[in-house]
Amino acid sequence: MKLDVDVLRYLSKDDFRVLTAVEMGMRNHEIVPSDLIDRIASLKHGGTYKVLKNLLKHKLLHHDSSKYDGFRLTYLGYDFLAIKTMVNRGVFTAVGRQIGVGKESDIFEVACEDGTVMAMKLHRLGRTSFRAVKSKRDYLRHRSSYNWLYLSRLAALKEFAFMKALEEHGFPVPNAVDCNRHCVVMSLIQGYPLVQVKQLQNPETVFDTIIGLVVRLAEHGLIHCDFNEFNIMIDDDEKVTMIDFPQMVSVSHRNAQMYFDRDIECIFKFFGKRFNMSFEEQSDDIDGSEVDEDESGRPSFSSITKTAGFLDKELAASGFTRKDQDDIEKKEPTSSCNE
Ligand code: ADP
Ligand code: MG
To answer: For 12, 66, 282, 299, which has the most beta carbons within 10 A of its beta carbon?
Structure first.
């Protein structure tokens, strides 16, 4: 999706006031009636309608008059609200090029006044289902749209909370800078996703580091659930950084073992294929840990000493509640690994 941030400059205070009014109305309306928007925004002299037209022109809103005259936010409208908030907070001053398109996100470079470049991730949960049901019946559209706003916001909050907590426990993750709505700002990782790396100086070392991370995460009570060559970044010194946390689950999740094994399997498969590594002969300890391995060298989930609740304090401090966790865990994590 193109994010034309130039438009931001032309938007007035009133434009944002009306955009925010639509967002507020969407708490309990799929399509927010125009007169409700007008009441919430309470601009003088019926100015709301002119502003609505302008927002519509810039595709920040979608107009729907099938049942009554009303509007809803588009992705772009929601993006602008989050970006505006970040700019107001002084987190960054400019949005640059797009650096990643994930399954459920768009990633952009953003820059501060002093020239520091960071990464901004805009979560787009429910993007596919949202499109798929678009032409279907109203009550479906109703549900999916709610889901999109709510789930994207929740995913961002979860990602931010986990990134911060993991960072505090010494995991190699981007530095979590700020979070608003469906938007997370983090440090920019110099390097490439592992999937783009054709050669490594020390594939064994990198492999051990990565498997060691999965084990250490489990010791901290967590499973990444999408731990694979798309979500591991490698720099020129072959330093590993893990990214992409919205689908993480606790080791007490009912399918924990399956997710753990799947994460491990993705890594084994990838290193086997890409770097011709074979694992049967490997007998040395992974990362010097005391974790048992099966005959193929894969660490066994049951032998890991897991401390659930390890990160609870940090997560709560970021505003991520147990209920949020429950809500988001209703959505089973999917992996991008080719199984
Ligand atoms: P998704 O959840 O949609 O898969 P990711 O967090 O995995 O999103 O990001 C998608 C892509 O964007 C990554 O594969 C990576 O190339 C890039 N990316 C994400 N975060 C960063 C970052 N902090 N620094 C540099 N590149 C990043
Ligand atoms: Mg990803």
So the answer is: 299
